[in-house]
Amino acid sequence: MGVISVDGVKIAGVSCCVPSNRVPNSHFAGLYSDGDFSKIETHTGIVERRIADVNTCTSDLCYWAAVDLFERTKTEASSIDVVLFVSQTPDYVLPATACILQNRLGLTKATIAFDINLGCSGYVYGLWLASTLVASGQLRRVLLLVGDTCSKFVSDRDKSTAPLFGDAGSATLVEHDPTGLSSYRFDLGTDGAGGGHLIIPSGRFRENENETSHSAYKSLDSAERSSRDLFMNGGEIFNFTIGTVSKSLENFVKQVGPTFDAYVFHQANGLMLRHLQKKLGISDDTMWMSLEKFGNTSSASIPLTIVANGLNKSGVINGRFLLAGFGVGYSWGFGCVDLSGVVVSLTEVL
Amino acid sequence: MHLNNDEFLSRLAEVLQVSPSELVDSFKLDENNFDSLALISTIALIDECFNTTVNIEKLMACRSIKELLALIADALKS
Question: How far is B48 from chain A (nearest CA, A)?
């Protein structure tokens, strides 16, 4: 499928919420050898991450982000037609977390609410779906809640995952634009053959939990994790990024480009992002980053990067943005969106 | 951008935190910091220096510089 155009839509605001608990790389000092520990920042670009406590779920972070968003955009909860929750860390297997959040946020019973299970590409997918829903004007407002608390399913003794992942939630208000002047462009894709390279093997219905599910084992790469922990084949993910993602993104830019005020990519890993930046010829000042302070926050990394950089520009952003999410699935999504006049904010919770 | 083996090895030495002069054919990767973090940097270097990608399982199985350069040469041929 080629580029999808969606007209008559605008983003009113983006808010994010992160845990106040800052975890620096020194957390791993006693867990890894001195050599491995010192390489974390060099190889990943990450200095610290925000980690949620045992009682804080992704839905809590998204809830607080939504409360803040309503206040800053002067939005009545009763005006929301749809709430979408995009995450790989829902509250329960069932019911859908979007239903829980409909009630908690005081949205009306006429609200359409459902979950979407995606990670790295999730924000762009959510934005495309929300835009499509409001484009005709039959539905006016979508509350897009996107986030993850991946720290809850990584093993501290797996240096290919634990030093990377931070926790965050986001809320984005997507509205019908009656002027019809704005036009968002999207390109979305999937290659499920890569599903096994970023996976939690156990704990659902293909492989139910059993007595060994939580037992840590030492893998070929010397990591210690259980089948309930995240496994990531970083090499394969990197090859996917510099191959499929890079080529698809170049093609997308050719069709909707050529220039953007800012490039906001999923904050996978500093080395990977700088490599992609160089391949695509993106200047430092337009390549927005946030992983130094927050790590890889999975589906929340794109809105968090928008907010973290937008706050340096007086809390209102402007311009034409290229968004790119890619990873688990494999799944990828690119968006070309006008974010002029969008209010951004960032809150913290204990 | 296509660079030669010397340039690649010089930058690989930085990744492995060793002197470039140490990276001779017999240099043992598996005994010298060639871990999951270095693997990612090596993939980036191979793409940057030779504009190609290599099979990850075969890359992880490389025990020496000689085997690594042979893998890259094979990738460039195919």
Answer: 8
Element of type H or E holding A123: helix A122-135
Query: Does the CA dihedral A223-A153-A53-A264 come out positive or negative?
Result: positive
Cis ω for the linkage preceding A163 (within 30 of 0): no
Distance (Å, whole) CA A309 – CA A52: 22
pLDDT in tens, A310-319: 987 778 899 9
Domains of chain B: 2-77 (1.10.1200.10)
Query: What's the pLDDT tens digit per position in A63-94?
Result: 999 999 999 999 999 999 999 999 999 999 99
Q: Using alpha carbons only, how large is chain A's radius of gyration in Å? A: 19
E-only strand ranges, B1-78:
none
Beta bridge partners of A336: A185, A322
CA distance B72 to chain A (A): 14
The active-site residue out of A62, A120, A150, A336 is: A120
Q: Please state, in angstroms and as integers, the Cα–Cα distance from residue A283 to each residue in A134, A144, A261, A279, A287, following that order.
A: 34, 30, 10, 11, 6
ipTM above threshold 0.90: no
- Alpha-carbon distance of A276 to B29, in angstroms, equals 26
